[in-house]
Design brief:
Blueprint: H1 22-43, H2 51-55, H3 79-111, H4 115-144, H5 146-150, E1 153-154, H6 168-173, E2 194-195, H7 210-213, E3 214-216, H8 224-228, H9 232-237, E4 238-240, E5 244-247, H10 256-268, E6 283-287, H11 293-299, E7 304-309, H12 317-323, E8 328-330, E9 345-351, H13 363-371, E10 372-381, H14 390-405, E11 408-414, E12 417-422, H15 427-430, H16 484-489, H17 494-522, E13 541-544, H18 551-558, E14 564-570, H19 577-582, E15 587-590, E16 603-609, H20 611-616, H21 624-634, E17 635-646, H22 647-657, E18 663-668, E19 675-681
Parallel strand pairs: 1-2, 6-7, 6-9, 7-8, 9-10, 13-14, 13-16, 14-15, 16-17
Antiparallel strand pairs: 3-5, 4-5, 10-12, 11-12, 17-19, 18-19
Length: 690
Amino acid sequence: MSRPLYRGVSGVRTPEHNHDSWESHNKDKLDKEDLDKKGSSNHSSLPLKSPLKLLFSDNSHSKFGTNENGYSSDPLIGTARSRHKLVLHLLKCSLVFLVILALAGSFLWTVSISTTSRGQIYHGYRRLQEKLVSDLLDIGELSSAPSKMKELEFCSPELENYVPCYNISDNMGLGNSDGDQLDRQCGPELRQNCLILSPTNYKIPLRWPTGRDVIWVANVKITAQEVLSSGSLTKRMMMLDEEQISFRSASLMFDGVEDYSHQIAEMIGLRNESNFIQAGVRTILDIGCGYGSFGAHLFQSQLLTMCVADYEPSGSQVQLTLERGLPAMIASITSKQLPFPSLSFDMLHCARCGIDWDQKDGLLLIEADRLLKPDGYFVWTSPLVNARNKDNQERWKVIHDFTENLCWEMLSQQDETVVWKKTSKRNCYSSRKNGSPPPLCGRGYDVESPYYRDLKNCIAGTHSSRWISIDKRATWPSRDNLNKEELAIHGLQSDEIMEDNESWRTTVQNYWSLLSPLIFSDHPKRPGEEDPPPPYNMLRNILDMNAHFGGFNSALLRAGKSVWVMNVIPISGPNYLPLIHDRGYVGVLHDWCEAFPTYPRTYDLVHADGLLSLETSQQRRCTMFDMFIEIDRILRPEGWVIIRDTIPIVESARALIARLKWDARVVEIESDSHQRLLICQKPFFKRQAN
């Protein structure tokens, strides 16, 4: 477990107490305890409930009072009493005069106060207001779920790989079948209010790129038997020993993935896979990706491949792919739309992915068409393509005919692989024979915010202003800078994006200057790792919980960080997810009152900019603490959390985070006096061996 975060960082002010005064603090504490003991012996029956009671308390103990020796005063004193009255009268007059003089001076000072001074006073008043709001938020959170916080414990061993919302047995009990039992079913009753421990033999993953090809067996729920029972291609791509799984996709000794990707490029009409970028391909959706080797190979060509696969209780494709530092998420395409906007990907890939595209009256192919950009490619590898028996040939004919109705052009077929190209011409749909199905969706059909909706039996996106051929879009990395016309589609101006990019450039520099000394002082080098040029390889999988325009993702890549970012757009905020996909990144819509579709321990860094303010400003069915428990679930041991929000929110979050046993500190943002950073690190807790 890493050491507490008490190190300073140059250029950053930390409004914390001085930890070097620990000894003096303990001395004051001992003095206070001595005073408390003395006070308790003399006044144990008189607790002090309010400082106002002490200020305005009546000191008289009898009708006439007592002197310092305890004797009663004589009520029949004549001349002396008159003199006392005169003195008291003069004192009262003097007090009134001083009050009048003070009020007059205060009035003159107020009149002469400068604009700058007024701003300082207002700023002080603003800080008092924020402190009050922070206190109220703390009270609200603590009062809304006190039992959750008090009863928070470590989860049982069977929940080490638990993913909320995916309970196959419960779904089958509801009558779901034919693949629907894999569907996502979320509800507040499914939330687990406990902290998930790491497996007994869990080890911190190797840094990228070593971790792409070598992972620890104990970190994923897969056995040697499951590896041996997998397909022949999978077995050839993996080597399993007692502690590690090695992938040979990048090895010169194994060229299966390289030959396969080279074949696809030739079928499209390209020289090799390195020319995908020139053909307009940047983002690829890999459905049923196996263990991510296709995306791992294409990463060196600057192609971003998002793996989606069904939830699997063991031997998960998604879990293993994320462990390798590659983009992946749990998603089923059986009955619901995926949480991506329409026209999002340049290529869809399905190699023995287990999807029966001929089933459900073509609904699955319609969903694939929805996700594909105009002139995008659909690559399918299956024994059905080269079938010999009559039944499989009939199934292949159904798929072939239906793709024609979708206005897909079949470019090539080789062995078991076929490549289609989606049309970019809208008039193709009106020229179909006899109005062939499926019909076009209406103009009012919202295709930008599909959050696990039922599959729709109509072709979407044809009315969208984002209907732009990938051939006419800028190639990567120029695609990151959308032109004026493309930005206007999203209601933005060029100067807005430029300002956002510059802001995130500075922010990322600050993040790295803060994290680098902390990470590399704790873990300068682990066994089997190369010496990374700091801070290049210290993080790989990043989750941005409130991605806005995708500026954080863009700034990381511009700074040369070898990372990938899952950009998440909360359904409670403005939807800029289509913009993020148009810029050449990947992301999803998500409701943060529900579990994120991933396995435990899959992200190195979780980033939340303004998310807590967004969520707490609405009437939500979950608390801030519920979101923190979910972050803890998906964060790797020794992983990092950066919360960037208003001062009251950050202070409230810090009070709640203490329950999670995270190491945390607040960092002041120099350029913004109303915001703070909360930097947290998750400790390395793992289950002890029996």
